[in-house]
Amino acid sequence: MKFLHLVTLASAALALPSDSLASRQKKACTSPKVRKNWAKATSAEKKSYIDAVLCLATKPSRLRVSTHSTLYDDFGYIHAQLTEPQRIHGEPVFLPWHRYFVQVYEDALHSCGYTGAAMYWDWSADWAAPSKAAVWDPVLGFGGNGSDSADGNGPGKLRVADGPFRNLRPTYWNGAVDPHWLSRDWIPGFPADGQPEMIGNAYGPAIMDEVNSWTVYERFWPALESSPHGAVHAGIGGGRGDMSPVSSPNDPIFFLHHTMVDKVWWQWQQRSPGNRTFAYTGLRNDGKNATLNDVLPMLGLAPEGIVKDYMNTKGGVLCYTY
Asked: How many domains does the chain have?
């Protein structure tokens, strides 16, 4: 089995597009792309992005793990494989790994004709009423919540009831082959307790001020990862939605969420670029100290990266800003 897995990864690597990140030469970033807030993007930009996401579900898988899977599914699969056991969460690599992952996704969208940059959902602005955010628009957005009345999804999942992704059918659930309709299970609000829907107060102003108050990386990244990051996942995914399991990239909103996480980190870096651009400290899950030479695994979806190449969004192999 190990040999077959290595063969699969080797085949996938051969199938990588010629413009993949690691194939680019490091060069000066003179014209960085600007990543936009979805709420402020034009209708044409939103439609182009949505069309490209749908296109990913028509492209063959690079990993070829399952006969059902597509390039769209590869992202959920990789995330699950690297989450159990934990290799990309609960340790310093969380932020640079997901920065690379979002860029790999953006590159995949480009292969489907999208010419813009990754976009983000500013959940810190929508925390008091997340369900009213522009990202959930049924035409130029990601659709809304899942519904018990939505048909044909099997037990334990709530099929998204509207929007352009209603008919997306991810292959994996919690890392296992389990084809199903895209699902969401928004956590309701509890006004009597002062709790907004989707756990909104866990990414409101007070929490964001606390996250940004940390001046050292080894305190900043866990504060950002636990809450607000974790709260957004749980608030959208609930118990029966794709954003909760380890295969959370099944839901296209994952990438707008993690682009926002990246933006929060980028802003933190910009407050003191001389000290923070390459600030990367803390203890890894294997008990070793984190270093800028730590590897960013992609298991064949894209070449392995190195942390130091993804710390500066206008250096290394990246070229974007917010």
From this structure: 1
